[in-house]
């Protein structure tokens, strides 16, 4: 299959290189000339484990190339994927579809022969209908089928997720397109990954429903964690206790500082907005969104309390800035709100992140950075773990304590065992786990 991937951002690049790795001929297109020039030189614009090598291998094999010339690529393609961004629209929280529609307009005139146009971008229900309308209006001659094929990639594990998906969702109503999409995913199909064919609107909704459900699951366990703290129970045991029930499942039950990232916050909001438009509000998701927004800042207050109620003039070391490990992505990272809340309370912040400091500098003001965890902790009144990078799991507690001003450790990801940290002389606060005394907080 000859595939054009329009949009060489996170989703487009990972999907494009993986399709090439399946044996298809793939051209990744972007209108950012410098990005395409850099990709041609082998420079990958994002940090994603395994991506650089996979790009290099597939470029070498001749199956993957990069271009800014939409016309030529589209003309020569059997399948054109649209993988451009759909950010939250400023002001109303709806998904901004202007990039998707601009691509539809741009490709329409260049479609030659039967071509399947696939939206991979996360788009609200009905977007496929509009993409089809735009293409047919712009080029009534175009022999085209418009398909929805959402992605379920997690940053940091995207290649693995692409190659070993739980399912592939394809929304269409055209038999020829069904054959083409089956061919596109044949290697995975042969590996027993279920191909779920649905209507286009159903497929569009599945993506939002999946992300919203996961956001809700995380938010549920976060609220349980707060309750655990009040009643003297252990949220990790609650997670295990409920997760072993196959109807609930053990994944996405790690309590933490609130979900962030490029998908959950924006997609949950867009779903809530779409549902309101259709006069069918999704109140569980509306509530999830507001709980999660409040939680991120509340984590800042949790740190203030751990330091004794007043951080004015104090220095707090924040370890982990990205919204999760193994990425350099700062979008909607809980660290932003935690740091802001601490700064508002009068603290100075020293941050450290293995990959995210360059992006952090673009979204967080007035913080300084260290070269490693111990550098950040130097002279600090508290260390806060916001993102659970593996290297923080193996910190040398003696060394950490020796460089700090006061040994206060706030672990917003529950990566340590209380006994061990306390044994090293730290005052330790985590999420939803009993204190040393195991006593419940007094009832209000
Ligand atoms: C998510 C979806 O998982 C993926 O299927 C979709 O296509 C894109 O959005 P991603 O944003 O990369 O992927 O990250 P994910 O691993 O899902 O984590 C999202 C956020 O939830 C992170 O901030 C993470 O720390 C948080 N999280 C996740 C928890 O707090 N607890 C959990 O148990 C799981």
TrEMBL record:
Active-site residue numbers: 263 (nucleophile)
Keywords: NAD, Oxidoreductase
SMART domains xrefs: UDPG_MGDP_dh_C (SM00984)
InterPro entries reported for this sequence: 6-PGluconate_DH-like_C_sf, NAD(P)-bd_dom_sf, UDP-Glc/GDP-Man, UDP-Glc/GDP-Man_DH_C, UDP-Glc/GDP-Man_DH_C_sf, UDP-Glc/GDP-Man_DH_dimer, UDP-Glc/GDP-Man_DH_N, UDPglc_DH_bac
Residues that, per the record, bind NAD(+): 30, 35, 86, 122, 155, 266, 331
Binding site for substrate: 152-155, 207, 252-256, 260, 324
PANTHER family assigned: UDP-GLUCOSE 6-DEHYDROGENASE TUAD
Family, as annotated: Belongs to the UDP-glucose/GDP-mannose dehydrogenase family.
Full protein name: UDP-glucose 6-dehydrogenase
């Amino acid at each position: 299959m000859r595939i054009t991937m329009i949009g060489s951002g996170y989703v487009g690049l990972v999907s494009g290189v993986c399709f090439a790795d399946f044996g298809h001929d793939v051209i990744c297109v972007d209108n950012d000339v410098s990005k395409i020039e850099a990709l041609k030189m082998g420079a990958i614009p994002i940090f994603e484990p395994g991506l650089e090598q996979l790009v290099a291998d597939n470029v070498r094999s001749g199956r993957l190339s990069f271009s800014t010339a939409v016309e030529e690529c589209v003309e020569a393609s059997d399948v054109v994927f649209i993988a451009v961004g759909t950010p939250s629209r400023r002001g109303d929280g709806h998904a901004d579809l202007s990039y998707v529609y601009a691509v539809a307009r741009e490709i329409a005139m260049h479609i030659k022969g039967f071509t399947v146009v696939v939206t991979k971008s996360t788009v609200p229900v009905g977007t496929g209908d509009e993409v089809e309308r735009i293409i047919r209006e712009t080029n009534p001659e175009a022999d085209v089928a418009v398909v929805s094929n959402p992605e379920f990639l997690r940053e940091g594990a995207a290649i693995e997720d692409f190659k070993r998906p739980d399912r592939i969702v394809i929304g269409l109503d055209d038999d020829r397109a069904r054959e083409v999409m089956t061919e596109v995913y044949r290697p995975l199909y042969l590996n027993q990954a279920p191909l779920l064919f649905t209507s286009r609107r159903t497929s569009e909704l599945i993506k939002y429903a999946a992300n919203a459900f996961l956001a809700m699951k995380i938010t549920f366990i976060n609220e349980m964690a707060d309750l655990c703290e009040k009643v003297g129970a252990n949220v990790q045991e609650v997670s295990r206790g409920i997760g072993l029930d196959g109807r609930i499942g053990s994944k996405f039950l790690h309590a933490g500082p609130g979900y962030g990232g490029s998908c959950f916050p924006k997609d949950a909001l867009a779903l809530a907005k779409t549902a309101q438009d259709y006069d069918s509000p999704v109140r569980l998701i509306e509530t999830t969104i507001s709980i999660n927004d409040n939680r991120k800042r509340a984590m800042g207050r949790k740190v203030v309390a751990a330091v004794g109620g007043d951080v004015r003039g104090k220095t707090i070391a924040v370890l982990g800035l990205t919204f999760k490990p193994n990425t350099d992505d700062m979008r909607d990272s809980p660290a932003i709100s935690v740091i802001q809340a601490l700064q508002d309370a009068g603290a100075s912040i020293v941050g450290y992140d293995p990959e995210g400091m360059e992006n952090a500098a673009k979204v967080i003001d007035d913080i300084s950075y260290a070269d490693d965890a111990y550098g950040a902790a130097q002279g600090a009144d508290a260390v806060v773990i916001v993102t659970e990078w593996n290297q923080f799991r193996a910190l040398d507690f003696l060394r950490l304590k020796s460089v700090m001003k006061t040994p206060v450790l706030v672990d917003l990801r529950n990566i340590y065992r209380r006994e061990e940290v306390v044994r090293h002389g730290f005052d330790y606060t985590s999420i939803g786990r009993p204190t040393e005394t195991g006593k419940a907080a007094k009832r209000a």
